[in-house]
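User: Sequence for Zf-HC2 domain-containing protein below. Tokens please.
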Amino acid sequence: MRSCRNITSLISQGLDKKLGLGERLTVRVHLMMCSRCRNFKTQSQFIRKTAQTYTQHIQDLAKRKS
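Assistant: Structure tokens for Zf-HC2 domain-containing protein:
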């Protein structure tokens, strides 16, 4: 079994690109057993979505001022 450090790295990579089948399965199995990594994934997804929403909001404001 991979360490939490390896899994969190894969989770982060998975936000930017599609992981391979083996990597996705490894992460999924690990997440079934590890609440800390599940929390990391949830928080990472929240931060990513919030940053994207904020960026879009700033862009919309800039367009309105133009």
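The chain has a mean pLDDT of 96.
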